[in-house]
């Protein structure tokens, strides 16, 4: 079943989880059949980012030491948490847990990605669950990667960007709404970007997948 990532409202608070919180949340994922079966509790899976009601869980994993464990109805993983007073369920929370518990998988998916939806800053990236939504599209070709310099105090927007060459010196990154992004390409790497822009025209796109990386992946779209 396709994953169901639901973006949080911008008012949702992004909580910063310590190791104790991560472990408390991870404990919710095991032996949870008595709490969840047939109930209307809101649940989420921090492997695929889907949110659903507890009664949608259809498969359970037998455990030797206790009650059964819920498997996600979307991806089949035993990474299902449910809403508690201490931890209101949100996509930002699922994203944070994904990065904490599935870090190597995230790195692998990110390194292969050729597409990610747009985001306006780090918290927006968490609230939209961008790490669950980045994709490697078979028709796209990765043509290189360059380093970005971020202009201080201007945010961490990203996703798919258009690369505009303005005059002999300027490379401007523009988001899907036409706003220029707060990054500049390192001067020594301008030549590569210009050559690719000349060769591929508007089929050349940039991808900023992770607001902490300051990398621009150069994608040639063949859609
Ligand atoms: Zn899942």
Cα Rg: 20 Å
**Side-by-side strand order of the widest sheet:** 8-7-10-11-6-9
* Secondary-structure element series: HHEEEEEHHHHEEEEHEE
Number of strands: 11
Q: How many structural domains in the coordinates?
A: 2
Count of helical regions: 7
Mean pLDDT: 93
How would you describe this protein?
This protein has 223 residues and is an alpha+beta fold. The protein has two domains: 19-101, no CATH class; 113-220, no CATH class. 25% of the residues lie in helices and 24% in strands. The chain has seven helices and eleven strands. The two termini are 25 Å apart. The model has no long low-confidence stretch (mean pLDDT 93). It binds zinc ion (ZN). Zinc ion binds at residues 45, 47-48, 50, 72, 74-75, 77.
Topology:
Elements: H1 19-27, H2 33-36, E1 42-45, E2 51-53, E3 59-61, E4 69-71, E5 80-82, H3 91-101, H4 103-112, H5 122-127, H6 130-133, E6 141-150, E7 159-166, E8 170-174, E9 183-185, H7 190-200, E10 204-208, E11 215-220
Antiparallel strand pairs: 1-2, 1-5, 3-4, 6-9, 6-11, 7-8, 7-10, 10-11
């Amino acid at each position: 079943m396709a994953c169901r990532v639901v973006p949080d409202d911008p008012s949702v608070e992004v909580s910063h989880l310590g190791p104790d919180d991560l472990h408390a949340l991870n404990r919710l994922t095991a032996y949870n059949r008595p709490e969840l079966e047939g109930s209307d509790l809101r649940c989420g899976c921090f492997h695929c980012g889907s949110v659903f009601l507890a009664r949608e869980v259809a498969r359970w994993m037998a455990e030797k030491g206790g009650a059964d464990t819920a498997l996600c109805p979307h991806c089949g993983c035993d990474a299902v948490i449910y809403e508690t007073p201490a931890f209101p369920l949100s996509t930002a929370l699922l994203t944070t847990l994904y990065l904490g518990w599935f870090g190597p998988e995230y790195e692998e998916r990110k390194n292969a990605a050729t597409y990610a939806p747009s985001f306006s800053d780090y918290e927006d990236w968490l609230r939209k669950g961008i790490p669950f939504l980045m994709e490697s599209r078979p028709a796209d070709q990765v043509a290189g990667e360059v380093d970005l310099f971020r202009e201080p105090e201007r945010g961490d927007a990203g996703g798919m960007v258009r690369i505009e060459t303005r005059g002999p010196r300027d490379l401007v990154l523009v988001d899907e709404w036409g706003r220029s992004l707060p990054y500049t390409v390192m001067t020594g790497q301008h030549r590569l970007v210009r050559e690719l822009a000349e060769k591929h025209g508007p089929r050349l796109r940039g991808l900023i997948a992770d607001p902490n990386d300051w990398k621009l992946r150069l994608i040639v779209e063949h859609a």
